[in-house]
Amino acid sequence: MHPIVKLLVQRIALGLLLLLAVSAVIFLGVEALPGDTAQAILGQSATPQALENLRAQLGLSDPPLTRYFNWLGGILTGDLGKALTNGADIAASIKPRLANTLFLAGCAAVIAVPLAILLGLVAARYAGKWPDKVISGITLSTISLPEFVVGYIVMYIFGVKMGWFSPTAMTFPGMSFWDRLHAVALPVIVLVLVVLAHMMRMTRAAILNVMQSAYIETAELKGVTPMNIIWKHALPNAIAPVVAVVMLNLAYLVVGVVVVEVVFSYNALGQYLVDHVTKRDLPVVQAVGLIFAGVYILLNMLADVIGIIANPRLRHPK
Amino acid sequence: MADDLLLNIKGLVIEATAYPPGEPPKDITLVHGVDLALKRGKVLGLIGESGAGKSTIGLSAMSYGRGGVRLAAGSIMLNGREIRTAAPTDLRHLRGREVTYVSQSAAASFNPAKRLMEQVIETSIGHGLMTKAEAEARAVTLFRKLGLPNPETIGSRYPHQVSGGQLQRVMTAMALCPKPDLVIFDEPTTALDVTTQIDVLAAIKEAIRDTQVAALYITHDLAVVAQVSDEIMVLRQGRMVELGTTDQIINAPREDYTKALVAVRSIEHEEKPEAPAVLSIQNVTARYRGTNFDVLKNITLDLPAGQTLAVVGESGSGKSTLARAITGLLPPRSGRISFAGRTLSNETKARSMDDLREIQMIYQMADTAMNPRQTVGDIIGRPLELYFGLKGAEKQRRVQELLDQIEMGAGFARRYPAELSGGQKQRVCIARALAAKPKLIICDEVTSALDPLVADGILKLLLNLQAESQVAYLFITHDLATVRAISDKIAVMYKGAVVRYGQKSDVLAPPFDDYTDLLLSSVPEMRLGWLEEVISTRKMASAGN
After folding, report:
1. pLDDT at B545
2. Which of B109, B112, B122 faces A312 most closely, judged by CB atoms?
3. Residues of chain A whose C-beta is under 8 A from some C-beta in B?
4. Which of A167, B81, B119, B514 would give a disulfide with B540, using CB separation of 3.0 to 4.6 Å?
5. Cα(B216)–Cα(B86) distance, rounded to whole angstroms?
């Protein structure tokens, strides 16, 4: 077997194992909370008999291990259980919200990732000179402001003053792609501003690190233009650290944007999770927690895989 | 005629800003007004020790200052144009088209993420000199001329897939591909094994002759430059010492400094007679963890007390691994190591304090072998505390004695390693080893990173110390001149095994086995025509190719 295939298989197996471990942690964490679902439904004043009956009905009186495997088996078959608060099927509720989350994250990523890398390259090319300082200054100030502040500023300028976009990002089923795009424009702008700095800084640092290498001097002595040196000689050797940071930011775009969702009243997974945390709706919290963990593990695994593939020593062994 | 002059440097002054520890930055002058002229198709050797400014001057022919170096004054005319003050865009057009560069470490100078061919033809295409097909055809021709294996396909490999000697040839091909007027060779064979160096040197020489390119050949090794250049310029501390034809510099040097360079390795060392061994290695076999081949194969060697056993071989022959086995860092799989009459435990951890004290090591890189945040006094004082429990004034006195022994004055105890020269650093490492009062010091390539004259001083010091204290040396080196200078016994290693072993006079006397013959004949000799002679009479190709 080609050594790189072996490495990749190992890495993916490790990711799956990690996901399994996380599912156990999520289950145990919820299990360790005082009270249980039956208590949460019936409230403090429930009689012991009523609790007993409900537990039997929900399968809560089974041993924890059995319940864990039941839960896990359900997830694997697409059955995430029912929400306690309204009895709705969790999978059905998550589906459109997950789609909304991924749509928003995807739009932000499509703009932010290339833009951040480009800005990073330009900053590295003019390191210490004014373009570098301007880029660093702007991106650092947008990351320093809290998301809701950026959100309200953007909303005020583009939504209220200019009136280009709707200040709230309302979506509904049956909306066309372009309408949907128009609706999420403002949150996308906010998210781009928030994630730009991190990726830009990492690209700049990784490139500058590679620029110390002897082969960069070789390229310089070959008369290669500065931008070509960065693009052709430095970037291919800086991919692994850049991809790692890009993936962390993509994960953030999926799991960490609840504040932005709230600011723009965007109906997505973050809000759904927070709503149900406040209602102590544990099956929902478990399900969404697992999805978020899965996204993190998947993206980081992808970063590792790309890092491995980008390394010529692994791709072309002696 | 001036038209003949490809490169004409006049009154070149090169400056840099130094950042001495604990002091404000200051400007220093690296090159003080050097003149240099090179005709088309000629080869000028620039020779000198480190700090002579030879690389700096070489790179100035591309109007390039490495690491903040400034070409401060003077004139650099290339092809009749002033390039010292030329604009960056003009320099880009000239670099890689009119002048190209071959560096010491081709391994570091190739982009690890790109195939060799892409890098070799980059300039020819980027400067619009050739089409891709033409450039590739020329590259293959050059690969063949430089004696690379599989010239048709080697270009599709990545840098890590070919050996160091091959990379150095590929880099030469890369420099020659755009048909430049001038190539700067900056110590192109210094990092190679002696047996590989000779092939690369011959390939470079032939390529220079066939393409009729002019070259600046920079090296610290007079014997090497004598083989390739028409003229030689001797440099010292940024000034020209002497300029002459190769023949004149080698056979009739005028200046004292040049004479010293020519006469380097003047040490005559009489071998001592056979004596009882202090270190006895019997049938030692070892391999690294997770591998399935032996890096040491059934090694048996004896080192008499107060004598020097030189272990010679190319990189990868297992010489340093042998040192690791003796010190217990790589426990042997089988065999026995006895020292001063007792059998040593295989592992370092299991050895007694006295076993540890009596075997000391000195390394190639004195720089990395010392803690940069400790003073020389602390560094030498540490083994005194550890092994003898010395403290306070007593320790100071002993540090002082040791500094005297390595011919360094009292003031050095308070200095930091960064404030010392390369030779001084290595002396401090020797003092640290001596502080433990060892019976055996393992010297691993201790002079390889030093300039010849400095290395000579270190070897003399080691011999004097041996005469005084009867310490034995296991001297690991790839340099046969050093071996001649210092050893009583010699072991020649090749691919993990000892191929020749005995008293110096026996090992260095014919008849030779093929490998020893190759090794001995590969050492550059300071006479014209040596290279051709050796290439035509060799019995065996070198392994490092």
Report:
1. 44
2. B112
3. 213-215, 217-225, 228, 232-233, 236-237, 310, 312-313, 316, 318
4. B514
5. 21
Tell me how far apart the alpha carbons of residues B79 and B76 are, in angstroms, rounded to a whole number.
10
Domain B277-509: give its CATH superfamily. Answer: P-loop containing nucleotide triphosphate hydrolases (3.40.50.300)
CA distance B189 to B138: 23
- CA distance linking residue B179 with residue B177, whole number of Å: 5
Q: Is the ipTM of this complex over 0.90?
A: no
In this prediction, residue B485 carries a pLDDT of 84
How far apart CA B426 and CA A297 sit, in angstroms, is 50
* Averaged pLDDT for residues B472-488: 88
> What is the dihedral angle through the alpha carbons of A4, A6, A10, A11, rounded to the nearest 10 degrees?
10
Closest-CA distance, B455 to chain A, in angstroms, reads 27
Look over chain B and give the mean of its residue pLDDT values, rounded to a whole number. Answer: 88
Angle at B446 between CA B444 and CA B452, to 5 degrees: 145
Which domains are assigned to chain A?
90-280 (1.10.3720.10)
The residues spanned by each domain of chain B are 41-62+88-262, 277-509
Instruction: Point out the residue among B94, B123, B161 whose CB comes nearest to the CB of A318.
Output: B161
Average pLDDT estimate for B329-356: 90
Is the fold of B41-62+88-262 the same as that of B277-509?
A: yes
Fold that domain B41-62+88-262 belongs to in CATH: Rossmann fold (3.40.50)
B114 contacts A224? CB cut-off 8 A: no
Q: Is the distance from CB of B109 to CB of B100 less than 8 angstroms?
A: no
Q: What percent of chain A has pLDDT over 90?
A: 34
Whole-number mean pLDDT of chain A?
87
- Report pLDDT for B521: 85
B179 touches chain A (CB under 8 A): no
pLDDT of residue B384: 94
